[in-house]
Specification:
The chain is an alpha/beta fold. The chain has a single domain, classed as 2-enoyl-CoA Hydratase, Chain A, domain 1. The chain is built from eight helices and eight strands. Strands 1, 2, 3, 4, 5, 6, 7 and 8 form an eight-stranded mixed sheet that branches. Helix 4 links the parallel strand 4 (about 85-95) and strand 5 (about 105-110). Helix 2 runs parallel beside helix 3 (about 70-80). It holds the Pfam family CLP_protease. Keywords: Cytoplasm, Hydrolase, Protease, Serine protease. One of its GO terms (biological process) is protein quality control for misfolded or incompletely synthesized proteins. This is ATP-dependent Clp protease proteolytic subunit. Belongs to the peptidase S14 family.
Amino acid sequence: MANDNLNEFLKIKNSTETSSSLYFYGDIVCDEWDAWTEEDQYPLSIKNFLATEQGKDLNIYINSGGGSVFAGMAIYNILKRHEGFKTVYVDGIAASIASVIALAGDKVVIPENAYFMIHKPWLGLFGAYNSDKLIKASQDLDRIEEGILNVYKDNLREGIDIEEIKEKLREETWFTGKEASNYFNFEVDEKKEVAACVSDYFDKYNKMPNILKSKIDKDSNKKENNNKKRVQLRLDLLKLGGLND
């Protein structure tokens, strides 16, 4: 198996008989081939981890710029089915589909200076498309958005209408933790040093706060170097015949 040759991407710490900790500190991807750093997460790794932690409470730590909406929705549903009590801590950023994953928790704790970003889903298209296919792609995005909005709706504070969230979605809204708590059922923690976060998706966002951009610029080269090393590792394993399906 590939996981016998590569480092496990799932970050697990402080596992006890009654609780375990789970970290989302990278991008949300579809499978291990898309996971270019050890921090990137994908549904199968989460499913396999939870199979060994049945009934335990979970502490879930999030600092992610988002990723695949399909993978993220799968992870959300996997976490929701877990029977233990789930506490989510937004350590720095819960952006895009990572904001949906955050809402799988029974309790969400966010520092007042962390960020929670929501936006309309998008779809990357490759190849040639006629008008019918483009219309279908648009309809698919509308259905995806409806699913995301249903998750947000289930976690709104009393008195907040989902139409307000739809507008925030259209605008690509970066809430601070304090601002997010005005809309969602979050517990606000005191201001903390926000953990650094690197994501392949940051350059796709239009309204990222400048304070985040400055931190991201410092860390982007590190991820690029890690990606190059990981590509070389996979090439070496393929040459040795050690990377199997």
